[in-house]
Amino acid sequence: MCRFVQFTVCERKPTADLMNTLVRYLIFIVIAVPAVFAQEAQQPDPCGFPDTTSMEFKLAALGNWGYGYDTLKYDLSQWKMSPFAVVDSVGATVQNRAMYVITIQDTSADPLNKRQRVWMHARTHPGEVQGTWVVNEMIKMLLSNTELAKTLRQRYVFNIMPMYNPDGVEIGNARENANMIDIESNWNNVSPQKEVLVLRSQFQKYTSKPNPMKIMLNIHSAYDCTRYFVYHMPAGTTPTFAALERRFIDDVRMNFPNAIKPYNYFVSWTSVPATQYPESWCWSNFKDKIMALTYEDGNCASAEKFDSTANAILKGIDLFLQDTTAVTSVSLASNLPERYLLEQNYPNPFNPTTTIAYELPNAGIVSLKVYDVLGREAAILAEGEQSSGRHTAQFNGASFSSGIYFYQLRFGGRIETKSMQFIK
Fold it and tell me: What integer is the mean pLDDT of 347-375?
């Protein structure tokens, strides 16, 4: 009779083929599987990171960077005295601080729900107080008696959360909440932080309204002291939605052109959409129905003109939402006649190739040429009849010297020129 131990496979030595299979499987687990999540890990951080060890940072944190939770509550008490404002506590943080939303709109009835809805939130990262200054300026403008404020209140409902992370503000954390979690990138966690759950509940509430959320602005400030929007590439969204992003950013920039950078200053979602951000939730659930963007103001002592930034954003929102070709049907956006626009090349500086995009309001004869600094023609990128809509052309500088070049678009009697830099 055979013993059990001689019969069972437990005492068999693994074959070479089995060992090779196990090795390949382990390699897949160690290397291949993390690569699936690499896109999220490699997403660039638009805000940057402060030196939390410096005395300057520590002193600023002790003073809530000049704007703490008690100051917010005082401001809310003043704002809610306006007939156009309603202040609500919509949830609580980890340390049980109330999270507030101020709703601003005209007092007249809106039975047909024609007012379009705009959402904003700020102070996700406590150290980015400049975002608070911008949002506070927008609130003050919306509650004022100017003609712009009257128009905006009649056309829109503004839902604004001025301080998304009050625990972090009071504790003195640069980026984290009371659990030392960055709630900006906590949206795909299986157990999100309380603040994330509160904000998500607001998104769910306002996207289910008869007049659902059309714009979601995530207000931050960047430590490189630069103003810009975070643009999501077509590969991470869709070409039509990316075109609408550009239009929205251009609509804002035209009101503060020398301060806010062009749309392609900071790009993200270069191959796939990220899943960890508030914009990710909007894109995952509503795709192009919500213009969801992060705005970065300048985070530095010299950052000023927050009222100018606020004015530009509010006017840009109005221009974008009143342009029916921009919001009626995103699926048709690439086929609709566009305004005349020559965009900044991307990337810039470049080596050796760069892409130049432009929009034509109607069909016609087009000329797009590149010139050197002496005015000599360097390349012809487009020449002849073209249809209306958006077009792109590529310039390859491999055979040219490093330096500044100019590209010029001629169409319908109009001439527009922009510069670009080639660095070998």
Answer: 89
How far apart, in whole angstroms, are the C-alpha atoms of residue 251 and residue 317? 8
Query: How far apart (Å, rounded) are the C-alpha atoms in residues 298 and 306?
Result: 10
CA distances in angstroms from 124 to 81, 188, 200, 230, listed in the order given: 26, 16, 14, 16
pLDDT tens digits for 56-87?
A: 666 777 788 899 999 999 999 999 999 999 99
Residue 279, CB half-sphere, CA atoms under 13 Å: how many? 20
pLDDT of residue 389: 83
- Name the residue among 259, 193, 256, 274 with its Cα closest to residue 226: 259
d(CA 416, CA 358): 11
- CA of 20: how far to CAs of 16, 188, 211, 307, in Å? 6, 36, 60, 65
Cα distance between residue 358 and residue 350, in whole Å? 18
Superfamily of domain 341-422: Macroglobulin (MG2) domain (2.60.40.1930)
Could you give the CA distance from residue 101 to residue 86 in angstroms, rounded to a whole number? 8
Q: In terms of Cα–Cα distance, which of 298, 289, 291, 372 is closest to 331?
A: 289
Greater pLDDT, 240 or 37: 240
Q: Give CA–CA dist 325/332, Å, rounded.
A: 9
Q: Is residue 116 within 8 Å of 154, Cβ to Cβ?
A: no
The distance in angstroms from the start CA to the end CA of the chain is: 81
Q: Which residue's structure tokens are 């016609």?
A: 364
For 336-347, the DSSP string reads SPPPPEEPPPBS
Task: Return d(Cα 160, Cα 213) in angstroms, integer.
Answer: 12
Amino acid making up residue 287: K
- In words, the CATH class of domain 55-333 is alpha beta
